[in-house]
């Protein structure tokens, strides 16, 4: 009997209650080690961040299923006009690069794949599905500097390191990365 095929499903904010247990369960599995070592990574803190991120009308998630089993997911939302995202940069960026209008920049908050599906290209499939059809001109994400392979993976997907930030006082310092989503010339696509 052939193995089930991976399917990708897109969810909007109003569907979060149905998938929240899946998102939290995958997070708890993927971050099991960190949860035991650092309160910042606790499931409660993750749930608080998920609640905040998903409160934005532009929030979307893509969940990958292998048969009926969740294999991984990603979620993102547009940065609002008065975002604090860029205020946490350790070295401030030019104002032209950080001015948001609620439609300019997509923040990719989480992307994770469970161990049995790592190294299969699934993270890239989830990522590209999440970005497909988005109207923002660019996407940003954070990477822990202690994960150089993950940073290299994102660079292979077209992201560039634009600086570092600490989004919360008890958070690690993260590498901040940016990638153009469209290059129609209507606005700057960020730093090159």
TrEMBL record:
It is an enzyme of class 2 (transferase). InterPro entries: Acyl_CoA_acyltransferase, GNAT_dom. It comes from the Bacteria. Keywords: Acyltransferase, Transferase. GO terms for molecular function: acyltransferase activity. Its EC number is 2.3.1.-. PROSITE patterns: GNAT (PS51186). This is GNAT family N-acetyltransferase. Residues 17-179 form the N-acetyltransferase domain.
